[in-house]
Write a structure and sequence with these properties.
The protein has 2 helices and 2 strands, in the order ααββ. The chain is of the alpha+beta class. It has a two-stranded antiparallel sheet. The longest helix has 19 residues.
């Protein structure tokens, strides 16, 4: 039983080390990565608001397969989303 817990600990440690070794960065404006990430977010947001939206991004960070985006949604003509 103890060997099982040691094995789990080793695997979790290696996974955590791999994740932390990946750099955190902000995708540049106009890049395919930034567009793909925002388009993936756009689908559920437009479905919820029932209108086309554009994002105003305050912060955009990526690490590995994770992304953090802070901002707001507005209509494409620049009006705040009602």
């Amino acid at each position: 039983m103890r060997a099982k817990y040691i094995g789990i600990f080793v695997v979790m440690t290696l996974l955590a080390a791999g994740i932390s070794a990946q750099p955190v960065y902000t995708p540049k404006h106009g890049t395919a990565e930034r567009k793909a990430t925002l388009d993936a977010l756009r689908v559920p947001v437009e479905r919820e608001y029932k209108q086309k939206i554009a994002f105003v991004i305050d912060e955009f960070k990526v690490q590995g397969t994770w992304a953090f985006i802070s901002g707001s949604a507005q209509t494409p003509d620049g009006n705040a989303r009602a």
